[in-house]
Amino acid sequence: MKEFEYEFAESLYYTASEFEKKGGIWPIRAGRNQAKPGYAIGPKIIECYSIHFVAEGAVEFEFKGGAATLEAGDLFCLYPHHKYRYELGKGGTAPLRMYWLAFNGPQAPYLLDRLGISRERPYLRGRLTPDTEAALQETLRFIRSGNAGEECLLSASIYRIFGALHDPSACEQSDKGEEKWTARTLNHMHTHYMEGITVADVVRVAGVHRSHLYGELTRLTGMGPQQYLTKLRMERAAEMLQLRAYSITEIALSLGYPELYSFSRAFCKHYGMPPSRYPRDKGMD
């Protein structure tokens, strides 16, 4: 680390490639420091997200609408264009030592939300575990090396940081509302309907009683889970038939049906005609 007036610090700057910017998150800068007496930053703003991890000591953190004293194991997040200030805390028994990681990307606000961090409460307590610190040190090593071709490894190390910070109970709390579990369930059905998933699979993903799932999906879509899965499969079957690029057997197997008969029966029930007639009849409408 290099010595400055109020700290010893290592600051690492990173310029993401176009390849990395196609992903969900990429680093802007990172580093570590040990504060000296009189250490203070701000008030100022930044144009990216930045998480600061308190490894030792204490820091006084001021943000829009509040303030917090944070100690070893805690972290705080700076949001783009939000004014902040932080300084050496008075309650620490050891010198203030921190890591930081600044980043951007379309996934950034969602990753923070999943951790339970918000602009209104931009800090967490007790999340800097040995696993998190190891992932941070790995990320610093990748940024420090600057080796071309290691973008995937660097990205993976950043996701490991968020994985290590993850608290399952925080996700459970955020997923308790009707909107959360129903959105998750519909997303699962739209993603996997071609893979032969069953209503039992959907119930497991939803995490609610079967009757409650049926009631909510009926309210949202006008049909129960089995009917909705069938609708998705039949709509995709019609699209594939219109392409005239696949045989009916290939379409049946692609949509998760074990054989042609069960697919043809479901198709005929849904459209009122066998799949062999569908392209010609649609063309005559």
Automatic annotation (TrEMBL):
Pfam families: AraC_binding (PF02311), HTH_18 (PF12833). Signal peptide: none annotated. It comes from the Bacteria. One of its GO terms (molecular function) is DNA-binding transcription factor activity. The lineage of its organism: Bacteria, Bacillati, Bacillota, Bacilli, Bacillales. Residues 183-281 form the HTH araC/xylS-type domain. The keyword Secreted does not apply. Keywords: DNA-binding, Transcription, Transcription regulation. This is Helix-turn-helix domain-containing protein.
